[in-house]
Amino acid sequence: MADRMRILSGMRPTGRFHLGNYLGAGQNWVKLQDEYDCYYFVADYHALTTEPDGHTVESKIYDLTADLIAVGLDPNRSVIYQQSKVPEVAELALLLSMVTPLSWVLRTPTFKEMVKKHPDNVNLGLLSYPVLQGADIVIVKGEGVPVGKDQLPHLELIREVVRKFNRTYTPVFPEPKALLTESPLIRGTDGKQRMSKSVGNIVGVTQDPAVLRKQVQSMVTDVKRTYMTQPGHPRTCNVCAFYKFFFDDWQHYWDLCRKAQIGCGEKKKILAERMIEVFKPFREVRAELTPEIVTRILDEGSEKAREVARHTMVEVRQAVGLPPSR
Ligand code: TRP
Which part of the chain has CATH 1.10.240.10? Predict the structure, then answer.
């Protein structure tokens, strides 16, 4: 393990894991386990930036962890943990904030978006969100960070903060690099916006078949096609876009659609049944998990991550000029 490059990524527990999470991140995280020394965590501190009551996050932490394990994260190969169970990360975020110019965080696009979206809840935690994210990464000396494009501004900022820290004190941290997940934009059931829990346009992964059927049936299809007898436009139809992920012979279905030999409702039915079949093994694993098992996995993973974090903090305190904490 020691000669493998260490990578790290996290996800906020904001709701049930959905197809966008799976195709955009989860699937990739699972594959990376073959090649890297992987640290994956549930970012519950980060969730508090928009949802300050931790009690409401509790069940979401369980769901997200169980879903990640169900789709293939393996606690025997990856360290799977809960961010807040490694409180050293909060101290490191504080220390990183001392070398982070305010202007750098003020220009973060995600922060500007949040200010626009939730003008009534612009807290300091939201502003320092990427600094905490940087602490997540460097506390385990993560070198690679599998993320989607939307996270690139954070990664750029984090690299600058890390460089500044290393320059101001002594080089303690490697500069983390983004490992870009090659995934096209996954649109939600509305066919317009990126699939997201907060938009409410999601299709599940580990949920019951009945739920998946309903969600797929609710998908907006080819808006230019009113009747089944009209030819469809698979290039712009979101349902057809999903076929690319679930069928090796997706072109066959695209052809049928172009020739008006298959209707939108039928396409959705076939897609839903295929997804239900593909995700069957995930549902089976998920059904075997219990709160006890998941809690044990998170506790054990968090203890491992914490051990690494404690070591890093000894170095960090020394570098900054603080006394040992114990
Ligand atoms: N900001 C990430 C997101 O919204 C979640 C996250 C928190 C993260 N800490 C991280 C991702 C560290 C990668 C590394 O998706």
Answer: 209-278
Instruction: Give distance in angstroms: CA of 231 to centre of ligand 1.
Output: 42
Positions of the chain with pLDDT lower than 50, given as ranges: none
Cα-trace Rg, the chain: 22
Q: Which residues, other chains included, contact 276 with Cβ-Cβ below 8 Å and sequence gap of 6+?
A: 209, 212, 213
Atom of ligand 1 nearest to the CA of 25: 15
Ligand 1: nearest atom to the Cα of 142: 14
Coil, strand or helix: which one is 226? coil
Q: Is the Cβ atom of 155 under 6 angstroms away from ligand 1?
A: no
Determine the topology of domain 209-278 in CATH.
Tyrosyl-Transfer RNA Synthetase (1.10.240)
**Separation of 42 CA from ligand 1 center, angstroms?**
9
Output the average pLDDT for the chain.
95
What residues contact residue 192 under an 8 Å CB cut-off, 6+ apart? 220
Q: Is the CB of 219 under 6 A from ligand 1?
A: no
Look at the block and give the residue holding tokens 């968090």: 302
Question: SS3 for 176?
Answer: coil
CA of 12, closest atom in ligand 1: 5
Which residue reads 């502003």 in tokens?
127
Q: Is the CB of 147 under 6 A from ligand 1?
A: yes
Q: Give the pLDDT of residue 225.
A: 83
Q: Which CATH superfamily is domain 6-186+290-320 in?
A: HUPs (3.40.50.620)
